[in-house]
Each structure stands twice: as C-alpha cells, then as structure tokens.
Design a protein that fits this description.
This protein is of the alpha/beta class. Helices cover about 30% and strands about 30% of the residues. The chain contains four helices and seven strands, in the order βαβααββαβββ. The chain is globular, with a radius of gyration of 18 Å. The relative contact order is 0.23.
C-alpha cells in the first residue's frame, strides 16, 4: 500500500530573480510564524557545532527526541538520505516537512523514506511554493501512483451585477 501525504500549495507573493533555496527559506519562516520550532533534518546526528547558537538549538532537538527515535532518525539520515527538509515541533507534536518549488517532485529516496516515517507515527507534509494562478491549495497525494485528491481550492470572487 502506498502512503498518502498531505500537500499544501502556498502561492508566491512576488517574483524572485534567484530561486536557489527559495522554497526552504520562505517555508521555514512560515512554519516558525505558525509557532513551530524548526530544524534541518539533514543535520540530525551532527549534535556538535562550532557555532554555539546552532549547537544549542540542536541539543534542544536531541533532548526532545527519545533515544530510540533519535538513533533511528540518525540511521535513516545516514543511510537513506531521504528525510524531508525540516523536522518541526510544537506543543508535543512532531511533523516533517519537505519543501518544493513549483513543479518539483519528490525524489526516489524521499518516496522511500516518507512511508517509513509515517509507519513510526510521524506526520509528514509536502509544502510547495506555487505561482499564484495555481488553484489547488491542499491535496492528499498517493506517493506510488501520484493520484491526487484535492481538499481545498483557491476561492475566487464572482461579481453578480458587474456595471
């Protein structure tokens, strides 16, 4: 059975000349504004850092994760290289978020890793920065078949008596 993952489509408010790392920057800020503590998943296992603020932040993650889960995530990160971009924590809840820009797709490693995270009870989402003309705002997507069930569309204003 294929995993079903929530995809959120967030419209870009303006155009950018340089789009390198754009989705990660914008979506990280959005998650933090929603009250999530956000860590880069790729840095799981690198608990020591030459930068004190980074070390402090990742030690907080290490303290929040139980030892078995921490060890499992370190293994998944080192071996499978498919963890989503961010691990997020808020009020006792965890979620992993993969950030994509436009029509970028999940790669093979990510499609393997996400079901493993879901089996362990983690909530996983894909957040996509899209052009404003994209109507879909939320959908459930089946990883194997890429079949999409739209949950929410952009609202539009209909003028009843245009003058």
């Amino acid at each position: 059975m294929h995993s079903i993952v929530l995809h959120e489509y967030i419209p870009l408010k303006k155009q950018y000349d340089n789009r390198g790392g754009l989705s990660e920057r914008i979506l990280r800020l959005r998650l933090e504004q929603q009250g999530w503590i956000v860590w880069k998943s790729a840095l799981i296992g690198f608990w020591e850092s030459e930068y004190p603020n980074v070390a402090r932040k990742y030690m907080r993650l290490r303290e929040l994760l139980d030892p078995e889960t921490r060890e499992w995530l370190e293994y998944i990160n080192a071996v499978h290289h498919g963890l989503p971009d961010y691990i997020c924590y808020r009020a006792g809840k965890w979620k992993f978020v993969e950030c994509k820009l436009g029509h970028e797709q999940l790669n093979k490693n990510q499609r393997k890793c996400i079901p493993k995270l879901k089996e362990r009870g983690f909530h996983v989402e894909v957040h996509k920065l899209v052009e404003d003309c994209t109507k879909t705002r939320a959908a459930l997507v089946q990883l194997g078949t890429r079949e999409k069930k739209i949950l929410e569309k952009q609202m539009r204003i209909v003028l009843r008596n245009p003058r």
